[in-house]
Amino acid sequence: MTEKQHITIKGVKEGLLFLFDDQCEFSILLDELQNKLEKTHLQVLTGPLIHIHVKLGNRLVTDEQKEQIRTMIRQRGNLLVQSIESAVPETAQNKEAVELKIISGIIRSGQTYEHDGNLVLMGDVNPGGTLYCTGDIYVLGALRGMAHGGVDGRQDVIIAASLLKPTQLRIAGVISRPPDEWVSGDAAMEFACLKEGQMQIDKITQLYRLRKDPIVFKGV
């Protein structure tokens, strides 16, 4: 029985087109690509400079995976990778899915909660309680303790709360102890963000001005 081929090589006007199956594991593709480059397609791939165009189909790949493909093809000195394209929409390629964690309860004094991604807390953060997240922080309650968003250095995150009255806020490396005038006293949820490196406060209804593109979340 003939083994299924996951990579099809076709001649086109600009050179050669590599069509990758988007249904198999990426490691299988790499193994087959290596085999074609070193064994089965030597005759086709031998000669003067050949321009290579790679089509990934509906496969979402990272920059690292694209570089793996480029590096493998470049091992043959006469092959020049001109493009590596995916049919996945550009917005989905450029934004990694962000894990959204939803928890309920109270973060009490002395307690710390950490999450890699975006966090929604349905409850309060008491004075002395701390939240650490690589992404956004949304507190559906009172934020009276400390919250640190973008702990890995991201500066485009927000920290929002129904009652935003923290002892300290941090976004990336920027630390702020919000002044009293940050708290409006009404029922509208507010959020903090960085603008030109400075911590600022605004109503959550104004968030669309900051983020005009949709965010892709991966539920947890």
Automatic annotation (TrEMBL):
Entry-linked Pfam families: MinC_C, MinC_N_1
Residue ranges of domain Septum formation inhibitor MinC C-terminal in the record: 103-201
Domain of life of the native organism: Bacteria
Positions of the Septum site-determining protein MinC N-terminal domain: 7-84
Keyword Cell cycle: yes
GO biological process: cell morphogenesis; division septum assembly; regulation of cell septum assembly
Entry-linked InterPro entries: CAP/MinC_C, MinC, MinC_C_sf, MinC_N_1, Septum_form_inhib_MinC_C
Keywords, in A-Z order: Cell cycle, Cell division, Septation
Role this protein plays: Cell division inhibitor that blocks the formation of polar Z ring septums. Rapidly oscillates between the poles of the cell to destabilize FtsZ filaments that have formed before they mature into polar Z rings. Prevents FtsZ polymerization.
UniProt record similarity statement: Belongs to the MinC family.
Cross-referenced HAMAP family: MinC (MF_00267)
Subunit structure: Interacts with MinD and FtsZ.
Protein name per its UniProtKB record: Probable septum site-determining protein MinC
Organism: Paenibacillus roseus
Lineage, opening ranks: Bacteria, Bacillati, Bacillota, Bacilli, Bacillales
